[in-house]
Each structure stands twice: as C-alpha cells, then as structure tokens.
Amino acid sequence: MYSITSESASHPDILALIAALDRYQTELYPAESNHLIDLTQLATGSLLMMVIRDYQLNAVGCGAIVLNGDGSGEMKRVYIDPTHRGQKLGEKLLAALEDEALSRHCHTLRLETGIKQHAAIQLYERCGYHVRTAFSPYAEDPLSLFMEKALVADVRLAVL
Questions:
Q1: Which domain holds residue 20?
Q2: From the CB of residue 128, how many other CB atoms can be counted at a distance below 10 Å?
Q3: What is the reported pTM?
Q4: What is the CATH number for 98?
Q5: Number of structural domains found in the chain
Q6: What is the spatial distance between Cα 25 and Cα 70, in angstroms, rounded to a whole number?
Q7: pLDDT tens, position by position, for the chain (160 residues)?
C-alpha cells in the first residue's frame, strides 16, 4: 500500500529522491540540457510538493508543481524509485498533483522532459499531456521535449 501526501521540498526524504533523480539525469544529458531547479529556494505558496510513501513510510517517489500565478504551473522533479516502478505510481502522483493544482486555480500545466526518458514521456502522454513548443524560461533544445495539459476544458471556468 502506498500513500501520497504533501511534503516540504526541504524534507530529507525529498532531498534524497531529488539527488537520485539528478544523478540519473546527469548521466543522460550534458549540463546545458539539464534544467535542474532547487525547489527549496522557491516561495512556499508557489510550490506544490508531494511524496509517495510505501507501507513502511519509506519515500519512493516525488513530484512538484511550480505555480506561476497566472493560472499555469510547471511540473518538476517527478521521480519514482526504480524498485517501485511498474505499479502505476506515476499516474497516481500526477493525478494527485493535478488535483491540488486545480484546487489552487491552476488551469494549465506544462513540463520539460528529456528525449531519452521514454518511460516518462509515455507516462505524460497516458496522462493527457501533449507535445508543444518551448515555453519561458526555456529555449528550444534538441534534447528536450515540452508538453502541456489543460486541467479545465474552458480556462474561464478556472477563475470562478
């Protein structure tokens, strides 16, 4: 059994998961194509951070959304420990993050992922994300894939 809860980006369990993600991405991409962000430096109100824990309360996955204040957000730092993959935890994590973002009046989510992360790309596609052009602050990068998902069918409904 797994649980998904909100957590501080500075929690030691989150920092350990993000360090594992950074090691993985550093092996795949050169520094200029690694768009790593230190979530602990963001204002608390602009960050949604969630952790997945197993029945022994070990942190096995995490993900975040940076809220931009304009009704959009950026999915960041999604990672599932390799020993816990294949159990639909990614789908559950994204759904929990999306629900929380929607409750904070976020109507559109965007993300950047690397082209070599095939499982991540498939996860995002299964969850309704579509390929788009680069968005600020990114520039087009042949090693990056940019995606987006509308959380509401009509953006005007998100402000009600």
A1: 3-159
A2: 14
A3: 0.92
A4: 3.40.630.30
A5: 1
A6: 29
A7: 999 999 999 999 999 999 999 999 999 999 889 888 889 898 878 999 999 999 999 999 999 999 999 999 999 999 999 999 999 999 999 999 999 999 999 999 999 999 999 999 999 999 999 999 999 999 999 999 999 999 997 655 545 4
